[in-house]
Amino acid sequence: MRFLKQTVIVRGAAVLLVAALATTSCGFRRKKYENPITKDSQQPDKVLFDKAIRDIERSRYEIARLTLNTLINTYDTSEFLAKAKLAIADSWMRQGGAEGLAQAEAEYKDFILFYPQMEEAAESQARICEIHFRQMEKADRDPNNALRAEQECRQLMVQFPNSKFAPQTEQRLRNIQEVLAQSEMVAGEFYHHKGSFSAASNRLHGVVGQYPLYSHADEALWKEGDSYEHMGARFRPRAAEAYVRLVRDYPLSEYADAAKKKLQAMETPIPEADPAAVERMKFEAENRQAPGMIHKATSFIRRGPEVGMAAKRGTPTMDPPKREIPPNVPQPGGAGGFTGDVTVAPVTGSSALDTQPDARAGGAPAAAAPANNQKK
């Protein structure tokens, strides 16, 4: 009996010793919190982030943004800080609407500014391009969103050329430039039909010069040459240039044979077809998707433009659109004449008159006008 009591006492002492060792070793457990946050971690910042993501998935965008802002303001060293800022932008984009898309663009731009080296920076730029692409209208409407979309897509191609989003953005840029070219083509055809051949030739020349991948570039060249022919003998060389480019760069066009006859009548050498142009036109003919009859008949109920005919191959234009002076307009001579390029850009930000001091403010003050009611 005494032996059993001693055994129980020994075992009790062993249990107390193990408990004491466990109590003194709790400091070793605290070191786990110094490790990076893992997927199964229950640290407060990750709990907040997961809760916000669940709210975004359930379309509770305002609650999600409040949670994410709490995370950002409370845990400024969290590894979820960048993800939280990106999630705020995504929540605005999912919310949609004019206000939501404008806020999303601002948040994405902030993310690129603070985290330019992260892979998500390229994704943010792609989302900005998508925002304006979704707001584009038909070719005969206001082109401002198309110009903004082109500008933002070009920015991604320049700033993140090796990103995984670059190929998709390159095709989107072709689609955008198809719409912009069609917008110029509509104006050129209007002037051509009206008989304003100077304005028509200027617009049509700009279409092909700026957007050579445009699906109706050959038609634009044909009407450009016809416009120059109507402007008199002085512009016959320009008409010949348009026909030469049509035969050389668009050899499979339905206008190619007629352009060759025009060149023969003008006694201008007919150029050889560019083999690369032949291959490109064959590829585009096989891959373009022309809209069907039902699609055309219901186009009036759709706001967005048609991009099925956009090119599927080729490098899109990376320069902003430029305006040229019509050839029959006299060029200013002498010193002080304007010699730069007139570019087309979307209306953004404040005017220079609001942000820069007027140059006249630094000049000599104007002489005061004499008062008419002075007594003699």
Secondary-structure map:
Blueprint: H1 2-24, H2 26-30, H3 44-57, H4 61-74, H5 81-95, H6 97-114, H7 119-134, H8 144-159, H9 166-194, H10 197-210, H11 217-230, H12 236-249, H13 256-265, H14 275-287, H15 293-297, E1 322-323, E2 342-343, H16 352-355
Antiparallel strand pairs: 1-2
Helix pairs in contact: 3-4, 3-5, 4-5, 5-6, 6-7, 7-8, 8-9, 9-10, 10-11, 11-12, 12-13
Provide the β-strand percentage band: under 5%
Structural class: mainly alpha
Mean pLDDT: 81
Quickly count the helices. Answer: 16
What gyration radius follows from the Cα positions, in whole Å? 34 Å
The major pleated sheet works out as: 2 strands, antiparallel
Give the end-to-end Cα distance, rounded to a whole number of Å: 139 Å
What's the β-strand tally? 2
Characterization of this structure:
This protein has 376 residues and is mainly alpha-helical. The protein has 16 helices and two strands. The chain has helices at residues 2-24, 26-30, 44-57, 61-74, 81-95, 97-114, 119-134, 144-159, 166-194, 197-210, 217-230, 236-249, 256-265, 275-287, 293-297, 352-355, and strands spanning 322-323, 342-343. It has a two-stranded antiparallel sheet. Helix 5 packs antiparallel against helix 6 and helix 12 packs antiparallel against helix 13. The chain is elongated. The protein starts with a helix and ends in a 21-residue tail after the last helix. The model is unreliable at 21-38 and 362-376 (pLDDT under 50).
